[in-house]
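Subject: Interface between my chains keeps coming out wrong

I've been trying for a while to get a sensible model of this assembly. When I model each chain on its own everything looks fine, but I need the whole thing in one frame so I can look at the contacts. Pasting all components below, labels as-is. Any help appreciated, I'm running out of ideas.
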Amino acid sequence: MQAEIITIGDEILIGQIVDTNSAWIGEKLNAAGIKIHRITSVSDRAEPISEAVTQALSHSDIVICTGGLGPTKDDITKHTLARLFGMKLVRNEAVYEQVRAMTAVRHIDFNELNQGQALVPDGCTVLPNRCGTAPGMWFERDGKVLVSLPGVPFEMKTLIGEQVLPRLYEHFRFDAIVHKTAITYGLAESILAETIADWENALPAYLHLAYLPSAMNIRLRLSAYDVDGQQAAAEIDRQFALLDQAIPYRIIGYGDATLESAVGELLRGRGETVAAAESCTGGNIAHRFTALPGASDYFRGGVVAYSNDVKTALLGVNADDLNRCGAVSRPVAEQMAAGVRKATGATYGIATTGIAGPTGGTPDKPVGTVWMAVSGPDETYSIRMVFGSLRSQNIERASSNAINLLRLRLCGAPGNGLWTIRY
Amino acid sequence: MQAEIITIGDEILIGQIVDTNSAWIGEKLNAAGIKIHRITSVSDRAEPISEAVTQALSHSDIVICTGGLGPTKDDITKHTLARLFGMKLVRNEAVYEQVRAMTAVRHIDFNELNQGQALVPDGCTVLPNRCGTAPGMWFERDGKVLVSLPGVPFEMKTLIGEQVLPRLYEHFRFDAIVHKTAITYGLAESILAETIADWENALPAYLHLAYLPSAMNIRLRLSAYDVDGQQAAAEIDRQFALLDQAIPYRIIGYGDATLESAVGELLRGRGETVAAAESCTGGNIAHRFTALPGASDYFRGGVVAYSNDVKTALLGVNADDLNRCGAVSRPVAEQMAAGVRKATGATYGIATTGIAGPTGGTPDKPVGTVWMAVSGPDETYSIRMVFGSLRSQNIERASSNAINLLRLRLCGAPGNGLWTIRY
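Reply #2:
Try treating it as a single job with all components included. I did that and got this:
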């Protein structure tokens, strides 16, 4: 069972938006046992849309299109698909009434543009969109399926979950795909590959290993296609247990795990809490924790101490230390961590202070220099790292490293060797 | 002049990473006057890579591939391209020495995997990668160009900026593309379209208007192809000035402008500062401000007051009001905004308190209910909005609305009508 995804819109091609829809759809279809052959993005013009759809239908059983269904003139997906499938646009009364009701609730005029949303190709199945005005459309030809969905992410996601997947399960029978991904932190790809070479070479032939690298977070995915699902899943678990022995404390979790979700689960299990004192990371650590549902169980709050005044006033950092050592220093980082712990009543305080860039570096403390500290009931400790020259990357890396410091402490990791990152 | 982008990697197809590379490349090529015909993502297997490359070269003059150049076994882009172009892999001494030096600096073993990075197809031009071990490769055939780049974003970006674009300028002559994008905030697409219909209908025929919608931020792009660049640019500016009169205070800026960058520029111009007190947005407002280079000019810091204790201890919120009205209430929001202003010495305080979800809602205060407040030297004011059921969206919308409240105040926007969002 093979699928393709087509995302439609000039804004994707010229990079004004990042196409997150196709990643989300790819993940859902893959989890349902459907292989994704290709993702294509094309412009809001009839010819490229027709060409991409025709090519996709010639390769694959399922084609999911998103985008180009808005009420305005530049959206032509519906007209193009109608022509391609030899259908006429007709008014769908259910959609018409739903758009009318939706505009009434929002005190929006039910104007000609909105009324146009109720026009659908006469041979398709309408998939009602309860979050917006553009309905989804389900086309069938020669046993293959093409689905056209709005590009607004939450409308698309609701339609996929509530309408498209159930219909696909009904319409097709799927092969089994089993996969699981281990998330590692702190080893660069080549070092990781060398360290686990023996493990990799001893994998059974039916398991496929993929490295999914990002800046410092390498994910290792084991996949098995068309095999006994239960047996493959058990073997994957066994292999990952062996991997964990080969790189102790480097696997932070599986699947969707992140450093902050791993720390959150550890804290929840211990009935402990954390707070963050952030200078160079500017609220990103707090944001990463609080993006998780249920974060209030273990996240107490934080202080974004961007100016030195705030470091002294809210975190009790010693003004003499600030003057003598500078804001980017071990004493300031450790006092920030201890200070936010005290101010919020959290079990642990995490702190960052550094030079995110692009300016502000000195020969002694170049852009990318960051001190990270953790303060707990028994001890306060800190490390210094020098990252790179990119502001956004420095913010992410400092956040990750600081959160990882606490993770290592909570896991009981020994000594100092694991605290630094090999990248 | 037409280009296609091919991103290679199973991790893209199954949605484990979002393909941000193609958006970035699309933006750069478009700005350079190159139209993007299509973006394609394919798996790390020889056949789909060959097929996508062959198709792209048949349509377009320029093909940019990223990904699949890592040192590990599952990366096969280089081998596939060599076969496609009928070339052999040979060791490139300059790359070999550079990888050796790079591994030495990082204290990484110069192992067989890393040494393999120095093998390149013998008929391509090597584009040295000073940020990583995989070089870029430039192939030419029948006057067309194919470039293969590593998938790690900052390596790819450096190669595009320093090597690929200068070579493309040398190799091709480009047509002129002029475009500019106005960023609007606070009007849904259909309302915006209706409000500006007269303006849209009066546009000169050679200007193309596109709506680029996201949740509450609609971008309007005017483009002109193959015309006198200077004249088109002046006409676009004139048209956007007319648009601004049609929807006063709704255009927050142009190009890359965001609510926080607009507020930052307004504050910088006035010599004023801001701080944030965040409950439900959990540090996201601080993160959005501090992601901007130079934010320390106007951003003083903030308090993430996730627990009620932190609201009283660090922000001086009245414990009786917290008990009587609840954390999600007008008095608490306004006391948080005033409190963070006082605690940090900022000119303005922004505050949010609400129920991000997915749990915690009540009949009176459903999930998505958020109070947002701004406190300044002369006044403190607040609004209540009820967003939706998605946690991440509620966090983003509450952050945007709160920042926009301050923007409207700084722009001198009248009354209350503009404060609510019509979505």
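Reply #3:
Confirming on my end. The longest strand of chain B covers residues 177-185.
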